[in-house]
Amino acid sequence: MTRAMMIGWALSMLAGIGPAAAGGTPYPYQSCFEAASALHDVPLDLMLAVAATESNWDPDARSHANAHGIMQIQWPGTARHLGVRRVAELYNPCLNIELGGRYLRELIDRHDGDTTRALAAYNYGPTRIAASPTLPAGALRYVATVEAHRDRIRAGGRVEWRAAQQAGGSMRFDKPLRAERYAATMNRHIRGAEFFVTALPSGDHAVRMAVGEEGLSALDVSTLDLLGWPETAP
Q1: Cβ atoms 118, 108 nearer than 8 A
Q2: How buried is 9 (Cβ within 10 angstroms: 0-12 exposed, 13-18 middle, 19+ buried)?
């Protein structure tokens, strides 16, 4: 087990003991965000906003720039800098979130607490930003998007840019592909239930859970909570 994998495992165990989420709104993998936020002293709303901007909380996201997972950690450069030796490790949600928090902390410190330049470096790469006295237009748009997400998270209201909304025992998504990806993630991690996608009259798509005959194990219940499912009682 690599050091990065050990940290991801430890965060999974610690998840759920952090402070309440910003605005009280539940988010996928919220407990992992809370643990990483506390571990690296990075504001929780900042981490959530970066995740929203980078991947819309998709743990299987991959970009044309070869960035992977919820926090879009670039392979191999950034990942290896952070101690990851296998690209598959970036698809461990808690580990990916911890890496993103650690990298944000590093960039914030490198830029003497200037969050704007730290976010620009996260998006464009630290070398490109360090070499430029003024921020590129694309980096400024990225920063503006992250800050807009932070404002909505702080307000605690409905987040329009969010892919999923919780809806009493299901998760509702605005696009079928996002619903299918979420259902696939849940089916990989929860042994005592099956997750399936249904179309709604509104045009959204809901992911619903059917519990098996043996019911949910204690591990299933804690994992459901970790992954942001609205009902975790067995």
Answers
A1: yes
A2: middle
State the Cα–Cα distance between residues 6 and 227, nearest whole angstrom: 19
- Alpha-carbon distance of 78 to 67, in angstroms, equals 9
- pLDDT-derived band at 8 (thresholds 50, 70, 90) equals low
pTM, to two decimals: 0.64
Q: Where are the domains of the chain?
A: 3-155, 164-226
CA distance 109 to 192: 44
What is the CB-side half-sphere exposure of residue 47 using CA atoms within 13 A?
32
Q: Which amino acid is at 83?
A: G
Residue 8 DSSP label: H
Separation CA 174–CA 163 (nearest Å): 6
* Residue in 54, 89, 106, 160 annotated catalytic: 54
| Residue of 146, 28, 46, 178 lying closest to 94 (CA atoms) | 28
Within 13 A of 131's CA, how many CA atoms are on the CB side?
A: 5
CB 1 within 8 A of CB 20: no
Q: Are 158 and 164 in contact (CB under 8 A)?
A: no
Residue 217 pLDDT more than 50? yes
pLDDT, tens only, 66-83: 999 999 999 999 999 999
Is 54 annotated as catalytic?
yes
Q: What angle do CA 151, 161, 176 make, to 5 degrees?
A: 160
CATH 1.10.530.10 fits 3-155, yes or no: yes
